[in-house]
Design brief:
Blueprint: H1 6-24, H2 28-46
Helix pairs in contact: 1-2
């Protein structure tokens, strides 16, 4: 997922942004955890590991 892709701008970013503000109303520690989890998801989406069963040899 790239920063200028439609899935980032219209999918990922609004969900993370709204989640951050909703969670931040109750706990600042939880909103930091939310952002950390969202960033791990974002970078994990970009670098998905290849299917291990496809490597035969």
């Amino acid at each position: 997922m790239l920063f200028n892709s439609y899935i980032f701008i219209f999918g990922f970013l609004p969900v993370v942004w709204l989640g951050f503000y909703q969670i931040g109303k109750s706990s600042h520690a939880m909103d930091a955890l939310w952002l950390a989890a969202a960033s791990l998801f974002f970078y994990g989406w970009w670098a998905l590991p290849p299917d291990p069963s496809a490597r035969r040899g």
